[in-house]
Each structure stands twice: as structure tokens, then as C-alpha cells.
Specification:
The longest helix is centred in the C-terminal third of the chain and has 23 residues. Helix 3 packs across helix 4, helix 19 crosses helix 21 and helix 25 packs across helix 28. Strands 9, 10, 11, 12, 13, 14, 15 and 16 form an eight-stranded mixed β-sheet that branches. Strands 1-2-3-5-8-7 form a six-stranded mixed β-sheet, with helices on both faces. It has a two-stranded parallel sheet with strand order 4-6. The chain folds into four domains: 178 residues, Trna Endonuclease, Chain: A, domain 1, CATH 3.40.1350; 164 residues, no CATH class; 221 residues, no CATH class; 70 residues. Helices cover 49% and strands 15% of the residues. It is α/β, with parallel strands linked by helices. It is globular and about 85 Å long.
Length: 673
């Protein structure tokens, strides 16, 4: 697929998404480009927030407190397919973004005529004000579905107060196409040290013969490493490391301090970087080896070191000529098992330094099982031959990775089987599940923080993925996107994400978490009665969050108010006055094989639910201090206490039977409760 064909498909895909979602085409194109930036690992999770005035404009924003970075994006739509965007338009885009940042920071943006207190742009402006003194990078991005001239690039500069670096970045369709080809494995990182960086790396080769890997030790100048990273950015980083930097990218202050104050000691203080390559070229002078070229070079450990050194290129207080970095190179000889070996090297080397992100490993059984069901469960469509599935993205960029490997008929078949509108990510799942579990305040804390909390619950509860679990999860996704669509149609002006989370929690509350999710899965749509209830709830939730009524928001900062459990607790009091969903909308209780529970089975579940959290916690402590019951039973008792403390009911007859068995055994041994 050449650039023109790619651009045509890119545009058609955005048009299809607009038909399905009702979004603005320009914003859908911008969102699609941002997806490639996310996949590349260059940005975290940008939020679309279009705003235009005479001088100040913005299409999206992203604040990453971990990385101490604020990113602002402006989209320029080309007049034609791959139309040329001249340099003046690009620079005008940067000026729009600079003006937006400046006016948001000094408060003049908030005085713009026509801006209401509840407009989302007000919250963005306040967010920018809150970053003062808390960022070391302001990154301005012009993104476009056209083509730009390389001469339009602007070098990074320091802010007037020398507090942060201002970067200017351009992502056009050529850049997006390049990222697509990287995903497809058509572009590799090839480093020509003497030609491009005027250096050759002296190295030592491990003498022991290994049929799988040749290993070398070398020292790379800091300025060379920084310039290589500047050219290739996150493409240089093996995917595990790229994900780590994306979520935990805070510049290590110790590294920065060493670079500024003791650059000549950097080699002694730093553990260096671990890298892989598929091929190496070197020359020998007087018995000494010098590396001249590396093919498909990837950093598998040391991404933090690399990024920190690269960030110092514009730091006038750092003399990179004195910085040298230890480097290990593993040249993979076994082509058939290359990916497995690289992953093993990456995982092993990273595990030695506690490099963990808020995400839990993509190899966790919970995620693997979700992926398995997403590849096997066809979406019901009333016919004997369903045509599509929901695609769960177990690792970031997985959907684009897989799509990039295909072309022609296979590519079209993949898109038909896995429509982009039916792709869900790990943070999406956390959002649906946590909101449904009536913790909308955690959802409002942000995608990554919410995901971290969700992961902790999954691990503690030992959540198992079954066919029913997967189908109900997708039903919650459909419910959430339905809420999102209805809220968007009201054009409230902002806080859509907060509204979505609280309305989802309200629906869960009014159904006692027992809404008929099987119906939603089987019909791939929400019941009309539920749609009507969403419409009814919107004014209530909006007034509650924004303070449009006397009993609404308890803070002038709506985002902060929505993050407080008190916000949800007060909304629950108001929901008590609303009519609950009828039994006809409730999920029929069933056995694991799908058959209906009989009266005796239902009574057993009810009996198990009657024990309160204190009973279970007391039982677990009693058994532990007396070394009674099995460790599994003691742990289960504690888990039941945790579950009941969160107002969760027994999820199945099997779970209830196990709980009652523990109770009976404990009482027989003398537990009173």
C-alpha cells in the first residue's frame, strides 16, 4: 500500500466512524491521527476539546503529570487528498497554540465573550494554569491529514523564564504512514555511526559461542545517544519499555542532577542501557573492534536514561560532551525466535530494576482470557452467520499492529470482522467496570489512576473471565457508549466524561447492579426504557456536578468535586427519589450453564448474602489466630468481607455454596460471629 492508498483508506475509515458516531469529521480525523501518536508512545491519552477564537485555537490537549509534560494539538484539514499544507499555515497553527497557552495561563481566555463557566474549555484553561511550575516540557503539535514541508520544522526553545522547554512537532500523513509501516515491520532503525554521528564505538565481544545471540559491550557518547533518540523517538524503544515511559515518564531528578552537576561521573553512576539488534557491522584496528553500523536497533532496558539524556539536549546547564553511557548489545542470531528472545531479554533486564507501570503485565491471565474470548465470541445479529466481533486490545497498539500486517482482501476482512468502533482497551474496560461498580469518582480521577485501582481489585478478588463475564462486559461497553452518545447530543458544553461515569453509576444503582445485560449483548443495544431513564437522569446529574442547583457541586472546581466519594454519596441520596427499574428489566438469575435458578438455589444465594462484612472479617481473623480452616478458606472469608463491604452480592450459586460451607465449618469449630 503506497501513501496515497493509505491516505484514502484513512479518510474513508474516518468517514465511516462519523456515520456510526455522529462526530464531526475534522475531529474524527484528528482523533485518528492522535491514535497513531499514542501507538508510537509519544503521547499519553490526548483529549479532544475543540476551541477557536481569532488568535487562540486548540483541537486536543494532554497533561501528563508523571512526565511533567503538557501537550497541545491543533488540527489543519487539507483541502484535497494529501493536499499541501504550506509553511505559513503550519506556523500559524503553532501561533494559535502558543496564544491559547498564553491566554489560558494569564486568565484572559476565561474572559473571552461567550464562554460560560461550565464550558469544558474553562476547565482546560484552569488545568493549564495549574501546571505552572510543574512542567519541564510544553509540546505544541500541528497535526494534519495533508502533507507538510520538512522546512516547516521549528527547533525547541526555552521558555522566557527558563522553567521549561517548548517543543514544536508536526505530524502529517507522511509521518502517520511511516508509523503504519513501522507497525507493519517495513521500516527498521538502522544506525550508521560514522556517517550520521561522526563516531565509531569501541567494543568487546563476549568470547563464549552462543547459537542464539552474539553479545557485545560498548560505551556510547551521551550526545550520540541523544541525537539518535531525537531522530527516532519512541520507535527506538522496544514495546515494553515504550509502554513504561508512556505511563511512568517522569524525568528522573537524580539523572538530571548528575547530568547538570557531575556529567563526567555519569558513566560511573549509571547502569547503562541494554539493547538488541538483528545485525552488526564493525571494523578491526590493531585487534580492537569498533561498531560502525547496527540494524533494527532497539533499547530494551534504559529507556529512562535515554529519554533523560535526550531531554538535556536543549538544557544549557548540561555539557553532554562529558557524558558517556555503558551499553550492552545482544545481536539476535535466531531469526525464527527473534521476537521471543527480545521479549525475554526485555522482561528479564527490566525485572531487575523494578520498572513497572501502573498497567499490570499484558501476560496476566485476566487479560489473556479477555483477549481469547474477544477473538472467539461472535456478535449476535439475528442470523445464523454473524459477521463481526468485539476486539479487546491486550497491548497498546495491538489493533494497529495487526491491521498493519494485512493488505487487500485480508485487510478488508479484518476490518469487517473487527470494526474499529468495536475496539476496546484496558483503560476502557476499567472505566466501564468501575463506573458500574458505583465508583464514578475513581473514573473521574483519570484513565491511568482508575486503571491502577481497577487492577488492584481484579487481583485481590481473583476475577475469573467466563463467557458470561465477557458478554456482560461488552454489554456494559454498549451501555456506556450509549450514555456517551446521548450526553454528547445535549451539547452541554463540557464535563462529558464526568457525566458519563456518574450516569453509568446511577443506572447501576437504580437496577441494583442487576440490569439485564444479557439482553444488551444479544441485541447489541440498550433497552428503550433504559434510554428513557438516561434522558431523565441527565438534568439531575448535570445540576449535581456543576452546582446549577443549591444542592449541587460543593466546589467551584467541578473536576475535583467529581473525584470525591462524597459527590457520589450525595447523588445517591437524590436517586432514592427516582423510580427503580422493574423486574422485567432485571437479569434473570441463572446457573453457570445458563439454566434458570430454582427457588431453593435462589434462597441459598440470599442466605449467603445476609452475612455482613464484620462477620466475614471476624471469621477470617478468628480462624487465622487459631490456625483453623485451610489457608484458602481463610483467604476466601476475608475476600467475602471485602466484597460485602463494597455492597457486592454473591455472584453465583457456586460462590454462595462455598461461602455457606465455610460458615458451617467455622460454626462447628466454635465460631460464634
Amino acid at each position: 500500500m503506497d501513501l496515497k492508498e493509505f491516505a484514502q483508506e484513512f479518510k474513508e475509515s474516518a468517514a465511516i466512524a462519523v456515520e456510526n458516531s455522529g462526530n464531526d469529521l475534522d475531529l474524527e480525523l484528528a482523533s485518528s491521527i492522535l491514535e497513531y501518536l499514542e501507538d508510537n508512545g509519544e503521547v499519553n491519552v490526548p483529549e479532544i476539546c475543540a476551541f477557536k477564537k481569532t488568535r487562540a485555537r486548540i483541537t486536543a490537549y494532554d497533561f501528563n503529570s508523571e512526565a511533567e509534560s503538557l501537550d497541545l494539538f491543533y488540527f489543519i484539514k487539507a483541502d484535497t487528498l494529501l493536499g499541501k499544507i504550506n509553511n505559513s499555515k503550519v506556523h500559524q497553527g503553532f501561533n494559535y497554540l502558543s496564544a491559547f497557552f498564553r491566554e489560558a495561563m494569564d486568565g484572559s481566555l476565561l474572559r473571552t465573550p461567550g464562554i460560560e463557566e461550565n464550558d469544558e474549555i474553562v476547565e482546560v484553561a484552569r488545568l493549564i494554569q495549574s501546571t505552572k511550575g510543574n512542567i519541564n516540557q510544553l509540546r505544541l503539535y500541528v497535526i494534519t491529514d495533508g502533507l507538510t514541508d520538512p522546512s516547516a520544522e521549528i527547533s525547541s526553545v526555552e521558555s522566557e523564564d527558563n522553567e521549561y522547554i517548548i517543543e514544536y512537532n508536526i505530524w502529517d500523513m507522511q509521518r502517520v504512514y511511516q508509523q503504519h509501516n513501522i507497525r507493519a515491520g517495513k521500516e527498521k532503525v538502522e544506525i550508521d555511526f560514522p556517517t550520521e554521528y561522526n563516531t565509531e564505538l569501541q567494543c568487546l565481544k563476549m568470547s563464549e559461542e552462543n547459537p542464539y545471540v552474539d553479545a557485545y559491550m560498548a560505551i556510547i557518547p551521551g550526545i550520540t545517544l541523544a541525537n539518535i533518540y531525537k531522530k527516532y523517538q519512541q520507535v527506538l524503544l522496544e514495546k515494553n519499555v515504550r509502554t513504561f515511559l508512556q505511563f511512568k515518564g517522569k524525568v528522573n531528578r537524580g539523572i538530571r542532577k548528575t547530568l547538570r552537576e557531575e556529567p563526567d561521573m555519569f558513566f560511573s553512576y549509571n547502569n547503562g542501557i541494554s539493547t538488541t539488534a538483528t545485525e552488526i557491522e564493525f571494523k578491526e584496528i590493531d585487534g580492537v573492534l569498533y561498531i560502525t553500523r547496527l540494524y533494527d536497533w532497539q533499547i530494551v532496558n534504559g529507556g529512562q536514561t535515554t529519554a533523560s539524556i535526550a531531554a538535556s539536549l536543549s538544557d544549557r546547564d548540561v555539557d553532554l560532551s562529558k557524558v558517556f553511557v555503558p551499553m550492552k548489545i545482544s545481536v539476535i542470531l535466531d531469526e525464527d525466535n527473534r521476537e521471543t528472545i527480545v521479549k525475554a531479554i526485555s522482561t528479564t533486564s527490566n525485572s531487575q530494576t523494578a520498572i513497572k507501570n501502573s498497567d499490570f503485565s499484558a501476560n496476566e491471565p485476566y487479560l489473556i482470557d479477555l483477549e481469547k474470548f474477544s477473538r472467539s465470541e461472535w456478535v449476535p445479529n439475528g442470523n445464523n452467520k454473524p459477521v463481526c466481533k468485539w476486539y479487546f486490545e491486550r497491548t497498546r497498539g495491538q489493533y494497529l499492529d495487526q491491521l498493519a500486517q494485512l493488505s487487500g482482501f485480508n485487510e478488508k476482512a479484518f476490518k469487517r470482522e473487527y470494526p474499529k468502533s468495536q475496539k476496546i482497551t484496558k483503560t476502557d474496560i476499567a472505566k466501564y467496570m468501575v463506573a458500574w461498580n458505583m465508583q464514578p469518582y475513581n473514573v473521574c480521577r483519570g484513565a491511568e489512576k482508575n486503571y491502577t485501582l481497577f487492577v488492584a481489585d481484579v487481583k485481590r478478588d481473583g476475577t475469573l473471565v467466563t463467557t458470561a463475564y465477557f458478554k456482560h462486559l461488552i454489554a456494559k461497553a454498549i451501555l456506556f457508549t450509549t450514555i456517551d452518545s446521548i450526553v454528547r447530543s445535549k451539547k452541554l458544553g463540557g464535563y462529558k466524561a464526568n457525566m458519563n461515569a456518574y450516569i453509568m453509576a446511577a443506572i447501576s444503582f437504580l437496577s441494583n447492579k442487576s440490569l439485564d445485560l444479557t439482553y444488551i449483548w444479544e441485541n447489541q443495544r440498550v433497552q428503550q426504557e433504559v434510554v428513557d431513564k438516561i434522558e431523565e437522569l441527565i438534568p439531575l446529574v448535570w445540576n449535581h456536578l456543576t452546582g446549577s442547583s443549591a444542592s449541587g457541586a460543593q466546589s467551584s472546581n467541578i473536576n475535583e468535586w467529581s473525584k470525591k466519594p462524597e459527590c457520589w454519596n450525595r447523588l445517591k441520596l437524590k436517586l432514592e427519589d427516582y423510580e427503580r427499574f422493574g423486574d422485567d428489566l432485571m437479569q434473570p438469575e441463572t446457573n453457570e450453564d445458563g439454566s434458570s435458578l430454582n427457588e431453593t438455589q435462589r434462597s441459598r444465594i440470599k442466605e449467603a448474602d445476609e452475612f455482613d462484612p464484620n462477620f466475614w472479617f471476624g471469621l477470617a481473623n478468628w480462624a487465622k489466630t487459631r490456625n483453623l480452616l485451610s489457608p484458602l478458606e481463610r483467604k476466601a472469608a476475608f475476600n467475602f468481607g471485602t466484597m460485602r463491604s463494597r455492597n457486592r452480592s454473591m455472584s453465583s450459586l457456586k460462590q454462595a455454596q462455598f461461602a455457606l460451607k465455610i460458615v458451617a465449618k467455622a460454626k462447628e469449630l466454635g465460631y460464634i460471629g
